[in-house]
Amino acid sequence: MNDFTNSKATVKALPVTLKDVAKVAGVSISTVSRILDERLPKSKSKSAEKVRIIAKELGYTRDVMASSLRRGGTGTIGILVPRLTDTVMAILYEELAKAAQQSGYFTIVATCGDDVLEEEKAIESLLGRRVDGLILATSRIDSHATEKLRESGVPHTLVLRTDHISNSVVGNDVHGGYIATRHLIDLGHKRIGIVTGPDYSSNSLGRTEGYKQALAQAGIEFEPDLCIASRFDFESGQKAGALLFNLPIRPTAIFAVTDNLALGVISAAKELDLLPGEDFALVGYNDTPLATMLPTPISSVYVPLDYIAYKAFELLFSEKTGDMIEIMPSLIPRSSSIHTKI
């Protein structure tokens, strides 16, 4: 058994720190920090190699969050979104970049595909690039990422989604879901389907709750068969739309909780020779530019992403904690709903 293996038993505390490695190696903490800093040229000296071996034997892993805070400001902000192929996320990132630029900051964007493990990796990667703070559009109810950020003292703001603990700027999704559904009810629809999005996202849950509230207020019974869960992508909307259109009694109207999902619903309808605005009413959400460019423009709930981005950046370095700013959405009615015959 070599000396390094013997030394492993002398440090039992978890997690292993730079101080632990320095104590076993017989060098200063600053020396260990310099040798193990992956951003610096790798030293090939015997002492450096010894430190690296000891660190590996002890199971040392670098605390990216803590080291990022120690290094000080760099004038950069990390932005994390599920994907940039989502029109809403692409627009949101552009607005966040503008808001940052106005305050003299540069932004770096990363994506995680709405995957919990990829989210954690992306956060570590952004912090490893010495960002001064994070703005996240990826908060999931089943994730511990924001909890870790709070514990590490990393400045961060959540946008569009919230965990109801960290600072966040969101649309009032319950109200948005309510006005979308109420619009369809006021047009005479009673059998209204909904494509809800995933149940790990606060905005999906809020919009679905607004849908249920509008139905209840109108005395319309909630039917689980008309409520289809999905992801936020086009393909999910297409599958959900197919399920709704193939029900024994199909809905006369559909509320999709994003415009992407609404586009998927339109694609499913086309397969059955059904047209929005004629054979069924359709309302989307976020009022993306494409919503106005289709042969039948889509009614959609408008959320001011530019203002949300501005407030998110304003809140990023605020001394407040647990502050949630809710922005009121508004409905933009178009041909996809108002021309439908019931």
Describe what this molecule looks like in 3D.
With 342 residues, the chain is an alpha/beta fold. The protein has helices spanning 3-8, 18-25, 29-36, 46-58, 64-71, 87-102, 116-128, 145-152, 173-186, 202-217, 234-245, 259-271, 305-316, 335-338, and strands at 76-81, 106-111, 133-136, 156-159, 168-171, 192-197, 227-229, 253-256, 281-285, 299-302, 324-327, 330-332. Helix 6 (87-102) packs across helix 13 and helix 9 runs parallel beside helix 10. The protein is elongated and about 80 Å long. Mean pLDDT is 89; it is low at 1-13.
Topology pattern, helix = H, strand = E: HHHHHEHEHEHEEHEHEHEHEEHEEH
Q: Specify the structural class.
A: alpha/beta
| Overall pLDDT confidence | 89
Note the total helix count: 14
Termini gap: 82 Å
Determine Rg (CA atoms, Å). 25 Å
Strand and helix map with partners:
Layout: H1 3-8, H2 18-25, H3 29-36, H4 46-58, H5 64-71, E1 76-81, H6 87-102, E2 106-111, H7 116-128, E3 133-136, H8 145-152, E4 156-159, E5 168-171, H9 173-186, E6 192-197, H10 202-217, E7 227-229, H11 234-245, E8 253-256, H12 259-271, E9 281-285, E10 299-302, H13 305-316, E11 324-327, E12 330-332, H14 335-338
Parallel strand pairs: 1-2, 1-3, 3-4, 4-5, 5-11, 6-7, 6-8, 8-9, 9-10
Antiparallel strand pairs: 10-12
Helix pairs in contact: 2-3, 2-4, 5-7, 6-13, 9-10, 11-12
Domain HTH lacI-type: 16-71
Keywords: DNA-binding, Transcription, Transcription regulation
GO molecular function, one term: DNA-binding transcription factor activity
